[in-house]
Specification:
Layout (H helix, E strand, L loop, with lengths): L4 E12 L2 E7 L1 H6 L5 E5 L9 E9 L4 E7 L3 H7 L6 E8 L10 E6 L5 H12 L5 E7 L7 H7 L2 E6 L6 E2 L2 H7 L6 E5 L2 H10 L5 E4 L15 E5 L7 E5 H4 L2 E3 L11
Parallel strand pairs: 7-8, 7-11, 8-9, 9-10, 11-12
Antiparallel strand pairs: 1-2, 1-6, 2-5, 3-4, 3-6, 4-5, 12-15, 13-14
Helix pairs in contact: 5-6
C-alpha cells in the first residue's frame, strides 16, 4: 500500500446503464496490485469526503494501468461517472487481501457488480498455468450483460445466468450450478451475500474463496465499519468479527458465519 496518488483518467465509459469502466494511469499502485484487492477513489467533493472502494478489474503493470468497473449507487459514484479522459482522480491502494491462487482446475462465480474482480483473477490463473481448465459462471439481472467477451478470452468455458431468462440459464448462478451437479473444484466467488451464502452450501467438499461486497468507511481498518462475523470455536459465542477491508475482502467460505437474516 502506498499513499494517496493523483492518477490520470484514460477512459471512463458507460458499458451498460449505470455501469462504467474507468481506466486510470497509476504505475506505482498498479505495480503492487493483486487480483481481489481494491483501491479507494476520492470524489474531490467536500460534501462527500469518504473514499469509495472499487475492486480491481484488470491490471497492466507494464503500462501502469488499472481498470475499474463500478455501478452508480449514490452521490460518490455519480460524481465519478461525470469524469472524463485526462481528468485527474485521487487514488489510495492497493487495499485488502486478494485471492489466493490454488493449483488445478478453477471455478469462477460472479454476480452483478461482483463479476469485475474475477476478470483479473482469470487472467492470473491463465498466466500461472496456460493449460488450466477455468469455468466461469456469470449472473446478471437481464440481457444487459458486461465482460462476457473478456471472460471468454481467458476461460475454458463461460456459463451465463439471467434472472429473467433473457440470456443463458433462467435463474441465478446458484440455480445454474445446482443444475450441473454442484461445485467440484476450487472456486472463487464475488457477489451479493445471498449468492455467497448459497454457494457456501454447494461447496461442502471443495475449497471456496469468497470476496465480500461490504460497505466500507475508511478502507484500511480504522473505522471498523465493515466488520463481518467469522467462526471462532475458542470464543464463548462461537464467533468473532474481522474487518472486511483488512482481513478480507476475500475469505475462505468455511470461516464465515452466514445467518438467514443476512441481506
Amino acid at each position: 500500500m502506498i499513499d494517496v496518488e493523483k492518477a490520470i483518467i484514460l477512459e471512463n465509459t458507460e458499458l451498460i446503464h449505470d455501469v462504467y469502466r474507468m481506466r486510470i494511469n497509476s504505475p506505482e499502485i498498479a505495480e503492487l496490485c493483486k487480483p481481489g484487492q481494491f483501491v479507494n477513489l476520492y470524489t474531490g467533493d467536500a460534501s462527500s469526503i469518504l473514499p469509495r472502494p472499487i475492486s480491481i478489474c484488470r491490471l497492466d503493470k507494464k503500462l501502469g494501468v488499472i481498470t475499474l468497473l463500478y455501478r452508480i449507487e449514490g452521490k460518490g459514484t455519480r460524481i465519478f461517472a461525470g469524469l472524463k479522459a485526462d481528468d485527474s482522480i485521487r487514488v489510495f491502494g492497493p487495499l485488502g487481501n486478494g485471492f489466493k491462487v490454488q493449483n488445478g482446475t478453477a471455478v469462477l462465480i460472479g454476480g452483478g457488480i461482483g463479476i469485475p474482480p474475477l476478470l483479473e483473477l482469470a487472467a492470473d490463473l491463465r498466466r500461472t498455468d496456460p493449460d488450466r481448465i477455468i469455468t466461469a459462471y456469470l449472473g446478471y439481472r437481464d440481457k444487459n450483460i458486461f465482460l462476457a467477451d473478456e471472460f471468454n478470452e481467458l476461460c475454458s468455458n463461460v456459463e451465463i445466468a439471467t434472472d429473467d431468462g433473457s440470456i443463458g440459464f433462467h435463474g441465478n448462478t446458484c440455480d445454474l450450478i445446482k443444475s450441473q451437479g454442484g461445485i467440484s473444484a476450487t472456486a472463487y466467488a464475488c457477489g451479493p451475500i445471498p449468492m455467497l451464502r448459497g454457494l457456501s452450501k454447494l461447496a461442502q467438499n471443495s475449497k471456496l474463496f469468497l470476496s465480500l461486497e461490504e460497505r466500507m468507511g475508511c478502507g484500511f481498518g480504522a473505522c471498523v465499519g465493515c466488520a463481518v462475523k467469522t467462526a471462532n470455536t475458542a470464543a464463548e459465542q462461537g464467533f468473532h468479527y474481522k474487518r472486511c477491508c483488512m482481513d478480507g475482502p476475500v475469505f475462505i467460505a468455511d470461516d464465515l458465519v452466514f445467518e438467514d437474516g443476512d441481506r
